[in-house]
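Bench notes, afternoon.
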Amino acid sequence: ADRLVLYDCPPLLATDDALIALGVATGCLLVLREGRTTRSELLRAAELVGEERLLGTVLNGAVWSFAAGYQTR
């Protein structure tokens, strides 16, 4: 109860490993890659995880620049 264990699994839709880990996990964080993960893949993965165990998402590989309109103050 006093520990948090994180498992870094292969892509959920590509192998069975992540599905097996979901059997013992209390939560799941989905990692998406900009320009690679499609909306339909995200929706399917979220469906497999289940709303009650989906903790959130992380956008990986995002292209970021000041030219995109973001300004710091």
